[in-house]
């Protein structure tokens, strides 16, 4: 069923606690934790508890959770002391998406490159 946990999904396993993560923030429907391979001094991932392949699918099916994900990304950035940060939603393999559970990257703590690609 849409949104149900997937046995082969690493982020579902982080939600269930089967894989440990450095959690920095929780809401009723989201979780924010440190990326295992940080690309900036602060690199967080914010995910919904429910499983959707990407953020657009999440937003189409569960718009309130998608809005909560964005708000939580902002709160998590604030919790890290970031005034400037970048949110990235990789969508599809050619964009670099490797984990097919909706997530937003929160990157900051240094001057980020001005180009997007
Ligand atoms: P994507 O490339 O799909 O947008 O981003 C997936 C991110 O998940 C990558 O930046 C990768 O480092 C991170 N990641 C993959 N597996 C794990 C894990 O087990 N724990 C944590 N904390 N991050 C992970
Ligand atoms: Zn999942």
Q: Could you explain the architecture of this structure?
A:
28% of the residues are buried. Helix 2 (55-61) crosses helix 3. The chain has a five-stranded antiparallel β-sheet, with helices on one face. The protein has helices spanning 10-16, 55-61, 63-79, and strands spanning 23-26, 30-34, 42-48, 86-88, 104-108. Helices cover 26% and strands 21% of the residues. By secondary structure, it is an alpha+beta fold. It has one domain (10-108): HIT-like (HIT family, subunit A, 2-Layer Sandwich). The radius of gyration is 13 Å and the shape is globular. Residues 10, 19, 21, 33-37, 45, 90, 96-99 line the site of guanosine-5'-monophosphate (5GP). Residues 6, 9, 11-12, 51, 101 line the site of zinc ion.
Notable traits:
binds guanosine-5'-monophosphate, alpha+beta, 117 residues, 3 helices, Histidine_triad_HIT, HIT-like_sf, HIT-like, catalytic activity, Histidine triad (HIT) protein
């Amino acid at each position: 069923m849409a949104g149900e946990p997937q046995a082969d999904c690493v982020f579902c396993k982080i939600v269930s606690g089967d894989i440990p993560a450095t959690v920095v923030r929780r809401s009723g429907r989201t979780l924010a934790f440190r990326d295992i391979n940080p690309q900036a001094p602060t690199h967080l991932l914010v995910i919904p508890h429910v499983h959707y392949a990407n953020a657009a699918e999440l937003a189409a099916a569960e718009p309130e959770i998608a809005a909560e994900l964005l708000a939580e990304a902002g709160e998590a950035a604030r919790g890290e002391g970031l005034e400037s940060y970048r949110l990235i939603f990789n969508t599809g393999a050619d964009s670099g998406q490797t984990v097919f559970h909706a997530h937003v990257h929160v990157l900051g703590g240094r001057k980020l490159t001005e180009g997007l690609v």
